[in-house]
Design goal:
The protein is of the alpha+beta class. The chain has 2 domains: 260 residues, 2-Layer Sandwich (Cytochrome Bc1 Complex, Chain A, domain 1); 183 residues, 2-Layer Sandwich (Cytochrome Bc1 Complex, Chain A, domain 1), CATH 3.30.830.10. It is 45% helix and 16% strand. β1 and β2 form a beta hairpin. α6 runs parallel beside α11. The protein starts with 27 loop residues before the first helix and ends in a 5-residue tail after the last strand. The N terminus is likely disordered.
Amino acid sequence: MRKTKIAIPALVSLLLAVSLFPGRPLQAQDLAEFEKRVTEFQLDNGLKFIVLERPQAPVVSFHIYANVGASDEVRGITGLAHLFEHMAFKGTKTVGAKDCKAEAKVMAEIDELFLEIKAERRKAQNADNARIERLTEEFKAAQEKAQQFIVHDEYEEVFARHGSAGFNAYTSQDATQYIVSLPSNKIELWMLMESDRFANPVLREFYKEKDVVMEERRLSIESQPTGRLVEEFMAVAYKAHPYGDSIIGHMSDIETLTRPEAERFFRKYYGPGNLAIAIVGDVDPQQVKKLAKKYFARIPGGPTPEPVETVEPPQLGPRTVVLNDPAQPFVLVGYHKPGILHDDNAVFDAITDIVGIGRTSRLYKDLVKDKKIAVYASGFQGMPGDKYPNLFLFYAVPARGHTNDESLSAIYEQIERLKAEPVSPAELEKAKTRARASLIRQLDSNSGLAAQLTYYEVVTGDWRNLFHQLDKIEKVAADDIQRVAKQYFTENNRTVGLIETTQTTK
């Protein structure tokens, strides 16, 4: 079965700069050469395609970037973006279906029973428990009845029979993405299947899949101390913007979500004008354009959703959240910062490399190698997303016999060092070199290129910014790092999250 990647905010991050030409900075002529292999076009319904020719091997990677993530939800439907990612693999009116009309009648019956159960439970102490029990039995029976109309996993199996690789999807705060690689003679198959996915989705087994997601939440957050800490930490760091809610959603919201709510969510956010598709590999751009018109143009256009308008207000003082748990101690320190379109974004990339990434970073050398007060320490920008103002996050795992306070003090020392003294020319040059090298590794594949093309196209407005981002990093100077550290890494702009180890009771 497909292994869904749950995008619970990660505690590692790679720099979002790019180089396609090892060993030297990107220049204008490099972009010009790259553009010769790129074909862009947009269908009348608003769907954008980016096609990159890479004929080295007879394979093609496909990347669909839906500009909708957890930050587009509102209270009451948190977790719906991630849940819909699951539902997008359940098939269509033709894929995964034996008798779609009969199935639709049963699904309507399931919806109605769920709403009746939900309404009765809302009565709280006045609820008729016997009626709830009866309705629940009818609900389960209807769900079992629906099974006779389903061909399980047919969507994935069709691709598997034709040599697919990397078939997956994932949800973040900013986006939902669908990926697969296929032999180059299967482009029309992909066009047929994926256009059907967005033109004729059937949200079958919706309530069964909710149970799966609730179990994921239990395993990834509720039973994991660091998962609980991150959720509490983000809720404290953000008091207005939806970045403060976890991607997987609140349990009570997942429990009460309905299939009609998911259908409305799809109609609002999955229109062709809110999608971007990159196709990279052994392709003929003219064939791709012809097939795109044949299959994807049938999807009706509509208004593009507005971005999140809520703005997180300035933080007026330090915030702290403490999780008392018998688990290993853990330290999070976050500072609010602007999103990816801000002029200082490249400066934060440089700070990430100098202070936070790898065994040669300042944090790792100081806390782990020299002082030996932590078993790991790092820092990165872009928590939990990039599209909107986010956090620069420092974190550490204290070593046995050492405390959170020791790690906190050492992290603060490294932050003050950024403010007090310019980084050395060697450190700055190393950061710029590694920015190129890290992305060369990521982009040494069709799928990596497809991911970056769609990301930069949607989030920054132009895929060419994957070239320009590295140029911006090249221009970062030592005084930029000092200025940014002084401006953003302040006590009043700081949120701290801690796991304080408690003794287990026998």
